[in-house]
Amino acid sequence: MSPSPPEHFQEALTGWFTRPVRRRAALLTALSFVVPWLLGAWIKLGQQPGLHNDAERQQLLVDYMVMGAILFCLSMVLTWLIGTWILAVMKGRQVLGDDFPQETHRPSPADDRVRRG
């Protein structure tokens, strides 16, 4: 007996989100926040009021770039998750069936012709 369509739908939504995918998604999400923030903080160290003409404005510009980088990284994680879901849906459920019987090789008529050099 095959499962009812709602079970297929529920499995399609949650069956692909396995433990390794969840771990990788959590790691990538955390890295999406931490790496741009650390790079922005490192860049802002060199923008001090005595060393730069308009340090506040440049630090604000770096903050905007960090926010943009965080949003870009999060959108890449979301794109990866959507791709993982699409792949799982396209593969479908694993159904084990009978093996194909051993096919005998029948040479084609072209193999019987004598090649003339």
3D architecture notes:
This is Poly-beta-1,6-N-acetyl-D-glucosamine biosynthesis protein PgaD. It comes from Roseateles flavus. The chain crosses the membrane at residues 25-45, 65-88. The chain is an all-alpha fold and 117 residues long. The protein has a domain at 31-93. The protein is built from four helices and no strands. Helix 2 runs antiparallel to helix 3 (55-91). The longest helix is centred in the middle third of the chain and has 37 residues, at 55-91. The radius of gyration is 28 Å and the shape is elongated. It starts with a helix and ends in a 5-residue tail after the last helix. The model has no long low-confidence stretch (mean pLDDT 80).
Secondary-structure blueprint:
Layout: H1 5-14, H2 19-45, H3 55-91, H4 109-112
Helix pairs in contact: 2-3
Share of helix, binned: 55-70%
Task: State the total count of DSSP E strands.
Answer: 0
Helix/strand order: HHHH
Query: How is the main sheet built?
Result: none
Outline the low-pLDDT stretches.
Answer: none
Structural class: mainly alpha
Give a concise summary:
This protein is mainly α and 117 residues long. The chain contains 4 helices and no strands.
For the structure shown, list the relevant keywords.
117 residues, mainly alpha, 67% helix, 0% strand, elongated, transmembrane helix
